[in-house]
Amino acid sequence: MKPLKKKLIVLLTLFILCFTFFFVSIAKGAVEIGIKEILSSLFRRENTATYRIIVQIRLPRTLAAILVGAALALSGAILQGVMRNPLATPNIIGVSSGAGLAALSIMILFPAYFYLVPVGAFVGALLTTFLIYSLAWKRGIIPSRLILAGVAVNSILGAGNNILLTTYPQRVSGVINFMVGGLSGAAWKDVRMITPYILISLVVSLFFTQRMNILMLGDEIATGLGLKVERVRRILIVLSSFLAGSAVSAVGLLGFVGLIVPHMARSFVGNDNRFLFPASILLGSLTLMVCDLIARTILAPIEIPVGVIMSIIGGPFFLLILRNQYRGH
């Protein structure tokens, strides 16, 4: 089979799996709902208990999982490419913490301006990304400095989050779910809030796939090919920050999606970003839907935050990548 045809089949398969799990996610839970009931409730719109469960709880939650999974996965793929480090993901190098601190500050200090949470999270993610990038830069990105700078910045921002939580204990109801990362509180207002930010960032990112391929050849070669390296790098960092910030503003500090998914996507479609970006988007949505389904059914009716499931999977995955890096050296 030709490589191009194989990659297109992979993308089509991922799309079909996403479409299938969209309905499975709505159907499964503490209360099981059949596909016929789902379609009947959606088209008839009768004010029944089943209709309320589907429309008010499971549908917005599933849509949030699709959007957030795609955003975090693509954000990780962009960061790994721009910084040339397989460990450069939003939660590991502190980008998510920067977005989380900004979002948490608005939610606790300025609750009346809740609608500004995505903007604040984006600004926090962007400033954090550029700070880590500048700390890791020395005639090019040094992977070890990137991780060390990210750990240090992550620690400082984590301290800021803890200061807010301890200083305003009366305002932190519901914030624990934000710190762990979960979809249990996802509602239509969250979906409406993040949809324009994430969709615009996803679409714009797809127009930079070829430039990303050139950028990954190295700065000297990319410059020789006529690419304005620093401009493209800054645009990609902004897009990555927008994606991570929007996701964090909706579900909190959800980790490891941006680490696991791009690596899985590369194993399916290779390093060509023309296929890696859409594969990461689809696989990110699919992964988060599956993990959320596990989180709310494995101990039903008790629900585990999806961030816990991702950490259980992501921790060993991180160690595996780290071990392979050292073997490579």
What features would you describe in this structure?
The structure is a single chain. Helix content is 76%, strand content 0%. It is globular and about 65 Å long. It has a single domain (3-321), classed as Orthogonal Bundle (ABC transporter involved in vitamin B12 uptake, BtuC). The mean pLDDT is 84. It contains 14 helices and no strands. With 329 residues, the protein is mainly α. Helix 3 crosses helix 12, helix 3 packs across helix 13 and helix 4 (95-109) packs antiparallel against helix 5.
Individual helix count: 14
Cα distance, first to last residue? 34 Å
The low-confidence parts are none
Share of residues in strands: under 5%
Proportion of helical residues: over 70%
What would you give as the CATH superfamily?
Answer: ABC transporter involved in vitamin B12 uptake, BtuC
Q: What's the SSE pattern? A: HHHHHHHHHHHHHH
CATH topology label: ABC transporter involved in vitamin B12 uptake, BtuC
Number of domains: 1
Computed Rg: 20 Å
What best-fitting shape do the alpha-carbon axes yield?
globular
In the CATH hierarchy, the architecture is Orthogonal Bundle
Per CATH, the class reads Mainly Alpha
Class computed from helices, strands and strand pairing = mainly alpha
The description of the largest β-sheet is: none
Give the beta-strand count: 0
Overall pLDDT confidence: 84
